Amino acid sequence: xxxxxxxxxxxxxxxxxxxxxxxxxxxxxxxxxxxxxxxxxxxxxxxxxxxxxxxxxxxxxxxxxxxxxxxxxxxxxxxxxxxxxxxxxxxxxxxxxxxxxxxxxxxxxxxxxxxxxxxxxxxxxxxxxxxxxxxxxxxxxxxxxxxxxxxxxxxxxxxxxxxxxxxxxxxxxxxxxxxxxxxxxxxxxxxxxxxxxxxxx
Length: 201
Prior knowledge:
The protein has helices spanning 2-31, 174-183, and strands spanning 51-52, 55-56, 70-71, 87-95, 103-111, 120-127, 133-134, 140-147, 155-164, 188-196. By secondary structure, it is α+β, with helices and mostly antiparallel strands.
């Protein structure tokens, strides 16, 4: 009888040890799959900031007040006004030094919808100290320039030349010119678009 009891105790002890080893083994097995890791990273976003005539056009797109026409001196025409035969220019200074990507720049010139002086025309433009490039005056003239990342010159000045035709090529006669001096509106429109160049891959 004692032998049986001792045998049962031995078996019970052996079962308890086996259970303990099994639980410990299961815990070790599961522990292999509980490991975890986390990471985060911040990326620097390429800048996209332009100024036109020293105005931030990302926050304020209307730069009308920055365009100042300069008319050539004429002893028969008052200063700072336009009349038949007047010539002059206005400048657009574009600063892209805070831009971190390559981009295309499109400048479109046209007569404003409020303009009533049809004989005002664009005759040409200069970029920085370059040569005069003629503009064939149509309803809209467009200039497209590609700026690659890393180019040295990031500030460019465009000088656009205008003229009030009188004589060859004019569409207004003397009566129209006179009426324009009373009720006319001489107005042009400039639109500038900046477009990021896509990845070449």
